[in-house]
């Protein structure tokens, strides 16, 4: 994940070094933390899980568990330090409409949950801007600023879908390399959640896997589940045990579904990630009790893996 | 004061159509105010929250056409949360209650629901024209009610809206008796289209002048459609894959040749590269060409097409045309007035598709150019100075260098001098967007020279509050100022509160403005709505003691005669 973070810096054109270093540092920290504990946190942590995901790190990711501890950083403004222009004092920042910045950063989804039991929650920032300056400096995997370049999202999405549908034609043109590579424009899709007062929009292109996506959704929507899970303090610290799993499965857990190009509602996680982002038009986080016909598969998969 | 009976004055006023002029007329004297308001049929409202429908109708009871704009411009770039506002339903409800004879409704960046479309379709017997631009919140079911109930529908023009396509049969909801269509644009619909219903509709619409199809209309259907609408003036091609030898393609070529009235071409939403030659026979008539969605058509094919388009006045294209392609445009399209070059590769993977050279070539070759939107990878001051010299007639100049803060790539200097040259030379400049590395100096120039400037978009620019102050003090005609990620703060914001009464709106996001600054402003100016949009903190700003110094993420303020709006979502805090 961190390698791709480094590669994408060219877009913004910031001086790469400070941010790249930070990105590597962040991910190193994460790895060290994991290794030091001798536990495979990723296997045991409670998170927004998607069934059938291909991501190798994911083990118990079949269910959604929205982690309250990540709430304070959900969608908080990300800022880049502007390394080019030393003299100025302002910041090159993303807007706060999406959590893309947080998710794709080198800190990754793991670190938000894996806190070694040291901090029960992130410190609530008194001044959000300053807090973010110090921590989240590694840019999103695509190093994109919200709303930049200033192109209507309708146009961005339109370009994205037409390019993804026509891989064959690209080879005929001199710009094949630029177009057929992994770099494609943004793909904003709406994300709705049952009971949430408003929808969000996220750019699917900034995520590389279901893992990243689930973490982003978790952060974005965890605020709405305050009170749903009772005490969240235990999540991620106790590690996962089977009884907790089943509690969540039977409790108010959620499933993530998406609307595909044929306007059918599908369970997220069945198809490879690349295929998913090509066909996903919308996301919806539903209570598994509502997702009749989908939820049972979740349960089956859990049982079969356990 | 009046030497003529009112009817005569009213008749004279009928010839005055521009909103600005009519507004001016109404200020002359009470008598003229009264005559003007009863005779005004078209009203333009640039900010739907500046006024409410009841007051509008009290003043203009004979309203027939209404244009409403909702969300601020930066909503186009995802900077405004979805539920911010701009709901059209209250307007339609009020208009319906008043029984005004509404015939035309044009909405931009508003939230439209199926319910409002249904109400619209049932409430106005003479409703003729619906134009929705960048709106959202409705589905094809709403379109079905429009189709079914508006007996005299002339225009259904959907531009870049987000519409939930239920793959329903909305096209077949047009009754067989509907023969009045002049404009049908559904290019933004993503789903399947009932081709049979579409063909029959086109066949029974002899007045159809503008037809813009969506992706789901394939080539053979296009051929048939053009064959039964040879009078078409404005065509948006849908899916344009073809096998050059197929019978459909032959039929299409034959149909195209008959469309001698065709002046405007767009679409090619899915297009194979070899296809454009079918249109070569009518290119010499084209005045408008929009290939900005045709991602698969590249360089050489575009150039071949453009070489035939000598009368082109408006060109929207992707940067895949390249500088060389723009040179061809410059040498061919001598009538060009408006050019937009969009980026084809948004991540800028080293693909220097168009540079300052293309822009200079265009400015040198197209003397009538007055509007430009140009996305590029790099720019120089020298190029901008040359452009200013070549084209002093710019009304709209929007330059977007994809990489924020990029300096002149030859001298590494900020681009202040280049943009300064533009504002100095272009005395009629009304709209400006700049980019690249810019200091306070560029704003000094803008304040000094841009006397006609009405709309300015600033991003990642400036050093201190002085920058913003130059603009606020200098640009007397400023109406819409939008700023993001620039170091302007409370000092600039509060320097001249009365300025905002002369402006429609001010947007500032990711700047240095603080909550206490905004509060002070709101106190000083009760006729302003000062909105703080803070979707992620959920008004936590109130809870902690440092609130005064806390920077505001997004602020949007606008003058209004109706005070605080009631429909703001919880994350919008109106001071």
UniProtKB/TrEMBL annotation, chain A:
Polar residues composition-biased segments: 156-171
Primary localisation category: nucleus
Keyword Repressor assigned: yes
Key words, A-Z: Auxin signaling pathway, Nucleus, Repressor, Transcription, Transcription regulation
InterPro entries, A to Z: AUX/IAA_dom, AUX_IAA, PB1-like
Keyword hit for DNA repair: no
GO annotations of cellular component type: nucleus
Transmembrane segments: none
Family, similarity comment: Belongs to the Aux/IAA family.
Function according to Swiss-Prot or TrEMBL: Aux/IAA proteins are short-lived transcriptional factors that function as repressors of early auxin response genes at low auxin concentrations.
Protein name: Auxin-responsive protein
Organism name: Arabidopsis lyrata subsp. lyrata
TrEMBL record, chain B:
Keyword terms, alphabetized: Auxin signaling pathway, Developmental protein, Nucleus, Ubl conjugation pathway
GO cellular component: nucleus; SCF ubiquitin ligase complex
Gene Ontology biological process terms from the UniProt entry: auxin-activated signaling pathway; pollen maturation; protein ubiquitination; SCF-dependent proteasomal ubiquitin-dependent protein catabolic process; stamen development
Principal subcellular localization: nucleus
Domain of life of the native organism: Eukaryota
Pfam families: F-box_5 (PF18511), LRR_6 (PF13516), Transp_inhibit (PF18791)
Ranges for domain F-box: 4-45
Gene3D superfamilies: 1.20.1280.50, Ribonuclease Inhibitor
Ranges that cross the membrane: none
Molecular-function annotations in GO: auxin binding
Subcellular compartments: Nucleus
SUPFAM superfamilies (UniProt xref): RNI-like
Pathway the protein acts in: Protein modification; protein ubiquitination
InterPro entries referenced in this protein's UniProt entry, alphabetically: COI1_F-box, F-box_dom, Leu-rich_rpt, Leu-rich_rpt_Cys-con_subtyp, LRR_dom_sf, Transp_inhibit
Protein name per the record: Auxin signaling F-box 2
């Amino acid at each position: 994940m961190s390698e791709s973070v480094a590669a994408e810096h060219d877009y913004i054109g910031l001086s790469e070094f400070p941010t790249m270093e930070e990105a590597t540092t962040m991910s190193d920290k994460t790895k060290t933390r994991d290794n030091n504990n001798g536990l495979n946190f990723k296997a045991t942590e409670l998170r927004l899980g998607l069934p059938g995901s291909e991501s190798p790190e994911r083990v118990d990711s079949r269910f959604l568990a929205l982690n309250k501890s990540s709430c304070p950083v959900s969608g908080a403004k990300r800022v880049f330090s502007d390394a080019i222009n030393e003299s100025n004092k302002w910041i090159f920042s993303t807007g706060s409409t999406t959590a893309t910045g947080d998710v794709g950063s080198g800190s990754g989804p793991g670190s938000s949950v894996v806190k070694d039991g040291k901090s029960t929650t992130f410190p609530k920032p008194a001044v959000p801007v300053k807090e973010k300056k110090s921590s989240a400096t590694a840019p999103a995997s695509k190093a994109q600023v919200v709303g930049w370049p200033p192109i209507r999202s309708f146009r961005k999405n339109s370009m994205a879908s037409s390019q993804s549908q026509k891989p064959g034609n690209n080879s005929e043109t001199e710009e094949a390399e630029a177009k057929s590579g992994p770099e494609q424009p943004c793909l904003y899709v709406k994300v709705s959640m049952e009971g949430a007062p408003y929808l969000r929009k996220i750019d699917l292109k900034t995520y590389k896997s279901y893992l990243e996506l689930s973490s982003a959704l978790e952060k974005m929507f965890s605020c709405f589940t305050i009170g749903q899970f009772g005490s969240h303090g235990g999540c991620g610290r106790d590690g996962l045990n089977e009884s907790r799993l089943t509690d969540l499965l039977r409790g108010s857990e959620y499933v993530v579904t998406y609307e595909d190009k044929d306007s059918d509602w599908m369970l997220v996680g069945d198809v490879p990630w690349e295929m998913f982002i090509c066909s996903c038009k919308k996301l919806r986080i539903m209570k598994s009790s509502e997702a009749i016909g989908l939820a049972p598969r979740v349960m089956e998969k859990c049982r079969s893996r356990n | 004061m009046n030497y003529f009976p009112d009817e005569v004055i009213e008749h004279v006023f009928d010839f005055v159509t521009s909103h600005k002029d009519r507004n001016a007329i109404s200020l002359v004297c009470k008598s003229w105010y009264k005559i003007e308001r009863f005779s005004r049929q078209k009203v333009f409202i640039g900010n739907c929250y500046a006024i409410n429908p009841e007051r509008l109708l009290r003043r203009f009871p004979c309203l027939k056409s209404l244009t409403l704009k909702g969300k601020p411009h930066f909503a186009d770039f995802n900077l405004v949360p979805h539920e911010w506002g701009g709901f059209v339903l209250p307007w339609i409800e009020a208009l319906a209650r008043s029984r005004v004879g509404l015939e035309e409704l044009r909405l931009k960046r508003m939230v439209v629901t199926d319910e409002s479309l249904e109400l619209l379709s049932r409430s106005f017997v003479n409703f003729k024209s619906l134009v929705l631009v960048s709106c959202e919140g409705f589905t094809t079911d709403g379109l079905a009610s429009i189709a079914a109930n508006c007996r005299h529908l002339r225009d259904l023009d959907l531009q870049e809206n987000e519409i939930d396509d239920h793959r329903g049969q909305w096209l077949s909801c047009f009754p067989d008796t509907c023969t009045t269509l002049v404009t049908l644009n559904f290019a933004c619909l993503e789903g399947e289209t009932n081709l049979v219903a579409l063909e029959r509709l086109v066949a029974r619409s002899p007045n159809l002048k503008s037809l813009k199809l969506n992706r789901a209309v394939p080539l053979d259907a296009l051929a048939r459609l053009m064959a039964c609408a040879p009078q078409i003036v404005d065509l948006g091609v849908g899916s344009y894959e073809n096998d050059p030898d197929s019978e459909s393609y032959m039929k299409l070529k034959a149909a195209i040749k008959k469309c001698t009235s065709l002046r405007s071409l767009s679409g090619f939403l899915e297009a194979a590269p070899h296809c454009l030659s079918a249109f070569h026979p009518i290119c010499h008539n084209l005045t408008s060409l929009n290939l900005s969605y045709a991602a698969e058509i590249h360089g050489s094919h575009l150039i071949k097409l453009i070489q035939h388009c000598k009368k082109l006045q408006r060109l929207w294209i992707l940067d895949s045309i390249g500088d060389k392609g723009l040179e061809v445009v410059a040498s061919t399209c001598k009538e060009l007035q408006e050019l937009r070059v969009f980026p084809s590769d948004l991540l800028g993977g080293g693909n220097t598709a168009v540079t300052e050279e293309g822009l200079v070539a265009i400015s040198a070759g197209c003397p009538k150019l007055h509007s430009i939107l140009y996305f590029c990878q790099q720019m120089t001051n020298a190029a901008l100075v040359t452009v200013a010299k070549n084209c002093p007639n710019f009304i709209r100049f929007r330059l977007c260098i994809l990489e924020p803060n990029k300096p002149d790539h030859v001298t590494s200097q900020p681009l202040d001098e280049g943009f300064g040259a533009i504002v100095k030379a272009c005395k009629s400049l009304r709209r400006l967007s700049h980019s690249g590395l810019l200091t306070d100096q560029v704003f000094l120039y803008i304040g000094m020279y841009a006397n006609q400037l009405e709309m300015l978009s600033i991003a990642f620019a400036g050093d201190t509050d002085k920058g913003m102050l130059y603009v606020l003090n200098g640009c007397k005609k400023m109406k819409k100022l939008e700023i993001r990620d620039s170091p302007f703060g409370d000092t600039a914001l509060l320097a001249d509160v009365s300025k905002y009464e002369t402006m429609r709106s001010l947007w500032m996001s990711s700047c240095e403005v603080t909550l206490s600054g905004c509060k002070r402003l709101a106190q000083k100016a009760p006729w302003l709505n000062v909105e703080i949009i803070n979707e992620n903190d959920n008004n936590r700003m109130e809870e902690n003691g440092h609130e005064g110094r806390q920077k505001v993420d997004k602020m949007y303020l606008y003058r209004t005669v109706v005070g605080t709006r009631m429909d703001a979502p919880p994350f919008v805090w109106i001071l």
